[in-house]
Amino acid sequence: MRILIVEDEPKTGKYLKQGLSEAGFVTDLVRDGLDGKHLALTEAYDLIILDVMLPNINGWEIIQTIRRADKNMPVLFLTARDGIDDRVKGLELGADDYLIKPFAFSELLARVRTLLRRGKVRDPDIVQVADLVLDLQRRKLKRGGKRIELTGKEFALLELLLRRRGEILPRSLIASQIWDMNFDSDTNVIEVAVRRLRAKMDDHFEPKLIRTVRGMGYVLMDLDD
Predict the structure, then answer these.
(1) Strand pairing partners for 218?
(2) What is the C-alpha separation between 40 and 6, in angstroms, rounded?
(3) pLDDT value at 30 more than 60
(4) Residue 206: which residues within 8 A CB-CB, separation 6 or more?
(5) What is the pLDDT of residue 121?
(6) What are the percentages of helix, strand and coil residues in the chain, rounded to 5?
(7) Cα 118 to Cα 70: distance, rounded to the nearest angstrom
(8) Do the Cβ atoms of 27 and 17 come closer than 8 Å?
(9) What is the pLDDT of residues 100-126, one digit of tens each?
(10) pLDDT in tens, 127-175
(11) What confidence tens digit (pLDDT) does each residue in 173-219 have?
């Protein structure tokens, strides 16, 4: 899941980006209204966290622009403007939720997850392939009944492969979804990450679930797929 954060206060922006990244989201952070509007209109995001008081263009104008452009991603206003009139205005302009600063990160995270679930069939919290069981809510992995510890990036990579099980995922897609970067053919970060993930959840088990498709990418599939 990819989230755009439009927040001009550096400390709050850094806090949001770090917290959401640790929760498994890929995030882009911008501190200027013009940059926020540009990314909202040109990039694909699953959700936008939007401040109201921003340099150059305020949050009210940004949400009006993206709604006029028929961009339907959820928008959560995160702002110090706590008046009832402000909250009503934000929601009437097209926001899906409105949270007032100062805020508890646990509440923000709960609201983000609720917005991402809204309007679609809820993904299961537990995903199983063969004897591999991934608990997405508790962020735990077991295979053959044995607990396996993963780093944050390894967990995100496995979650992506599982959610798109049976689909060949190009390295460029993995790079953008997990590392938030454009794929550079000179880097081997994807290969290294896949090798480390395999060593933990595939090397000592059968069947092997992660497969390399030469010249195309990686796919996670069971023998029955």
Answers:
(1) 169, 212
(2) 10
(3) yes
(4) none
(5) 47
(6) 40, 20, 40
(7) 18
(8) yes
(9) 999 999 999 999 989 988 755 455 678
(10) 889 999 998 878 899 999 999 999 988 998 998 899 888 889 988 888 8
(11) 888 778 766 666 667 888 999 999 999 999 999 999 999 998 889 99
- 172-202 exposure pattern, b = at least 16 Cβ within 10 A, e = fewer: ebbbbbbbeeebeeeeebbeebbeebbebbb
> How do strand 75-79 and strand 97-100 relate by DSSP bridges?
parallel
Q: Which two tokens stand for residue 167?
A: 């689909």
What tokens does 20 get? 């959401």
Mean pLDDT of the chain: 89
DSSP category for residue 121: P
User: Exposed, middle or buried by CB within 10 Å (0-12, 13-18, 19+), for 25?
Assistant: buried
Determine the Cα–Cα distance for residues 181 and 173; give it in Å rounded to an integer: 9
**What distance in Å separates the CA atoms of residue 174 and residue 72, rounded to the nearest whole number?**
24
| Side-chain-facing half-sphere of 218: CA atoms under 13 Å | 22
